[in-house]
Amino acid sequence: MKTTIKTTSYIDRVHNWGKIWNFSMLFLMVMFPVAVGIIFKAVPDSKGLILGLIATAPMYWAVGIIETFTYIPMLGAGGSYLSFVTGNISNLKLPCALNALEQAEVKSNSEEGEVISTIAIAISSIVTTLIIVLGVILITPLTPILQAPVLQPAFAQLIPALFGGLGVVFISKNWKISIAPAVLMLVLFIFVPALNAGTVGIMVPVSVVFTLVVSRVLYKKGLLD
Amino acid sequence: MDFNVNSPILFVLSGIIVVAVLAQSVFFLAKAWKRGREIGIAKDKLKKTAITAAIFTIAPAVAIVIGVITLSKDLGVPLPWLRLSVLGSLSYETIAATNAENAMGLTFGSVASLTATQYVTIATVMTISILVGVWLTPLVAKKVLGGMINLEKRDRKWSEVFSSAMFIGMIAAFLGFIFCDVSSVFKGSTAGLIPVCVMFVSALVMVLAGLAVKKLKYHWISDYALPVSLVLGMASAIPITAWLG
Questions:
Q1: Cβ neighbours of residue B44 under 8 Å, at least 6 residues apart?
Q2: How confident is the model at residue A4 (pLDDT cuts 50, 70, 90)?
Q3: Inter-residue contact B245 to A153 (CB < 8 Å)
Q4: Residue A8 banded pLDDT, cuts 50, 70, 90
């Protein structure tokens, strides 16, 4: 299972499919508010729209651009096209793909890795979509159960429960390149009050770049052999 | 037609887009599966990947359903259903909806009923602000991944380190985030330790699973180790929160 991507035909086809699917999805998504407006004869409130966009769009566009460049190399081609439509990348799709690559013992930058990560992300997207559909259908009976105070802490701690297990797997295998970024991120998140749930998305690329620099130095010094 | 945030037509519109998302996922799954078989990946390995991914997804997906319920109080069910099925996340949608509602003089969480104009405004702000990845990925993915392939050709070993470093970078950022409220201990609150303790429970489960695989040769455990560590970590949050919260 060491086939590296030499023939790019499959990957090229994935890119072509991805372009068609993502631009089609873009059209559909934009059409939702347009269709609602036409059906109910309503146009957006111009002040609300402009102020709402000014308060929301610049930050999310900036984060979106950085996230796109950060996550594409990790998700692979098929995984990227799917993930950037279905969302929940860092808290679901990427960990799911990482786990699948680990279990299948394939490299992320091989064609096997491309296939495995696409399958994991596609299945994850399908299961997520179906569970949400089920949740929407059963929303009345489910609401008191899922919003029961006793269960709230469990769902509030999804990220720590996810990254505890994932961290053990990846840090134990790459401990030399893990120490510096882990220490840096701990120090920053503990001592900089502005860093919290709202800004962790911005810190991912910062941490990735820092880890790459540290890894490059260690690699050049022959400390990763 | 009278407007209502839970109008049947809104369910139909959201449903059409959700079906399209489902179709895209099935399409890529079928293509990847076929390619996997062509390049000699065993059917069992592909099946195992699919089953593990499905099991792993259940708990986070239920958390997303909770997000739909939370947002539905202001926005009705169809819009949160759509937004959280396509690209959204609870934190983003809450911020986007709050900003749009504030701009129109409303307060998120206490909106009795929305007019069609307010609804279209909120839906437009939520949609436009999150779309970057959808259009940028087709424009840059080939170049970015082509760069990765070139890197692999130039220096295979460094390319492997590069990939691992990217994953570690992401994990390190989230590990840091888990500790972000730890300093509240100095103000007398132990609530900031809850995520840290949950993380350690999850990590401990993973370590035990690793030991069971290595020492006892229970290789099947490794397939379910991450979903199990996730669920047990989440379950541990209930007593830990009661203790420290």
A1: none
A2: low
A3: yes
A4: low
Return the ∠ at Cα A109 (arms to A108 and A110), rounded to 5°: 95
Query: A66 touching B, CB under 8 A?
Result: no
Residues A36-86 pLDDT 10s? 999 999 999 999 999 989 988 988 898 889 889 999 999 999 999 999 999
Which CA distances in Å does B13 have to A33, A45, A112, B115, B151?
10, 21, 37, 18, 44
SS3 A4: strand
DSSP bridge partners of A110: A4
Using the Cβ of A129 and the Cβ atoms of chain B, whether some distance falls under 8 Å is answered with: yes
> Token pair of A111, please?
């064609």
A71, A47, A33, A84: which is closest to B126 by C-alpha? A33
Dihedral angle, C-alpha B151, B152, B157, B160, nearest 10 °: 90
Q: Shortest CA distance to B129 belongs to which of A30, A88, A172?
A: A30
Residue of A12, A19, A29 to mutate, testing the B interface (most B Cβ within 10 Å of its Cβ): A29
* Contact between residue B12 and residue A39 where contact means Cβ atoms under 8 Å apart: no
Of B79, B122, B68, B116, the residue nearest B97 (C-alpha): B122
d(CA B112, CA B14): 22
* A96 CA to centre of own chain: 10
- The verdict on a CB contact (< 8 Å) between B62 and A131 is yes
Are A170 and B171 within 8 A, CB to CB?
yes
Distance CA B109, CA B99 (A): 12
Give the C-alpha distances (Å, rounded to integers) separating A68 from A55, A90, B13, B141.
21, 12, 28, 9
Nearest CA to B61 among A87, A115, A119, A202?
Answer: A87
Question: A78, B171 in Cβ contact below 8 A?
Answer: no
Q: Which residues of A touch B231 (CB under 8 A)?
A: 161
Cα A131 to Cα A135, A223, B127, B234, B243: the distances in Å are 6, 46, 22, 19, 32
* B219 class by beta-carbon count within 10 Å (0-12 exposed, 13-18 middle, 19+ buried): exposed
Give residues 69 to 128 of B whose Cβ lies within 8 Å of A: 69, 72, 77, 81-82, 84-89, 91-92, 95-96, 99-100, 102-104, 115-125, 127-128
Please give the structure tokens belonging to residue B211.
């030991």
Amino acid at B173: A
Burial level of A200, CB count in 10 A (0-12/13-18/19+)? buried
Chain A residue with CA closest to B30: the answer is A119
pLDDT at B91 over 90: no
